[in-house]
Amino acid sequence: MTGILSGPPAEESAGVEADEEIHGGPWIPETSVVAATWALFVGLALVMVGNGLNGSLLGVRSEAEGFGLGVTGVIMASYFVGFLVGTRYTEDALKRVGHIRVFAALASSASSVVLLQAISVEPVTWALTRFAFGACMAGLYVVVESWLNDLATNKTRGRILSVYMIVTMAGVGVGQLLLNVEDRSGYALFILVSVLVSLSLVPVTLSATSAPPLAVPEPTGLTSLWQKVPTGVVSSFWTGAAAGALIGMGAVYASAVGMSAGRISVFLFVPMLGAIAFQWPVGWLSDHLPRRGVMFGVAAVGVLMPIVALAVEPDSNVALVAMFVLGGAMFPLYSLTLAYSNDWLRQEEILGASATLVRVNGTGAIVGPLVAAGLMGALDERLFFWTLSGIFVCIASYVLYRILARDPLPMERQRRYVAFPARASAVAANLIPRRRRPRDGERRL
Questions:
Q1: What spatial distance separates the first Cα and last Cα of the chain, rounded to whole Å?
Q2: Please, what is the average pLDDT of the chain?
Q3: What is residue 415's three-state secondary structure?
């Protein structure tokens, strides 16, 4: 298997071969798949910590600078627009210059973009740089996911994807906690984001000596996918909208209601913690109960938790519990959506369909902060929670309609639930295990 563990293939560019002659190979020797993947995960974790801090910092600073909620919504949505665009351009760049160079270029660019945000505190500058930062993040995801896919085997594919999900969610959560380590009105936090993203280069460039082949699933046509599994399309879009609204406007809401820096950090961290904590219980339920019923139940929890948070004071511990459970409903619901969609597809259709659903989810993530910001600006900041609740109403209503309109898939035909990152590129679809779970009495192959 060509990958991080082996030397460069003969057809690899002369530039990489020359690099190896000069440097003599990796400084951090990779002796196992575990070592190779963890080098990538450390680099990814640093990127995600910086990413989480950058998003919350811009949200809080936009509120403090008086940009207006509508303008702030555009700034935060720009990240997700950049994310969709950046994936495609990165795929083209990887084919031309290779993974290490692309990773280095994107990490350096993202680091520089953050410093521009510190220099020019203007809505237009922040929207453009947020777009560029999102494009860079998408590209970094593609590079890491491509390497992980090359290292994965049929036995380890699901575990690697689960670790990938934990690293991305935990990294974003830790980034939120860093919001209160320094005065948010100065340059220090922007510099910290830049340093974290720059440091991600160290484990990747010192451990990787060869570039795996890039495997990008060809997306299934949206019309075709809608005809086969409309529930998957609807749920994927709205879960993206919910995540976009929470990630994009959560810091804005917290700042608008007067939370302290420490409180804002915890307020934004607990949903990510809930996302990790609830992945296994939700997955276990979906493997042992009719999957649409579990989707409806999780969506119903998503409807109720924002209302609970609204019913108490913003600084109440009950509000934090509600945010924890909300994250535990929101992000696993996306994994549920992919698992349910795959139940209805042939094995050869899964990659293309998953790639399409990732793009649909990304489109929803653009809409979420725009809708939340518009409603919050026109009426009241409390519309942040009503927006989240309304989005889950859309999911729950449609899933209930489909439960009543169509018979469920037999339990023995369901594929196993696999945790999938809320923000990933279509390349990550390669990591989804595509075998059905064995029926009673069958031997696992």
A1: 21
A2: 82
A3: strand
State how far the Cα of 317 lies from the Cα of 328, in Å rounded to an integer.
17
The CA-atom distances, in angstroms, between 163 and each of 41, 157, 158, 215 are 8, 10, 9, 20
Q: Which of 230, 222, 226 is nearest to 403 (CA)?
A: 230
CA distances from 72 to 111, 126, 250, 287 (A): 21, 9, 12, 40
Best CA proximity match to 399, nearest among 331, 272, 303, 285: 303
Q: How many CA atoms lie within 13 A of 88 on its CB side?
A: 7
| Cα separation, 79 vs 130, whole angstroms | 5
- What residue spans of 344-382 are helical by DSSP H? 350-378
Q: What is the rounded CA–CA span in Å between residue 328 and residue 166?
A: 13
Phi/psi of residue 415, nearest 5 degrees = -85, 165
Average pLDDT of the residues in 98-111:
86
Q: Across the strands, what pairs with 393?
A: none
Task: Report DSSP state, residue 98.
Answer: -
To the nearest 10 degrees (0 to 180), the angle between helices 69-97 and 33-64 is 150
Angstrom distances, CA of residue 115 to CA of 30, 125, 192, 193, 309: 34, 11, 10, 9, 35
Q: Are 350 and 416 in contact (CB under 8 A)?
A: no
pLDDT digits (tens, 9 = 90+) for 48-64: 999 999 999 998 888 88
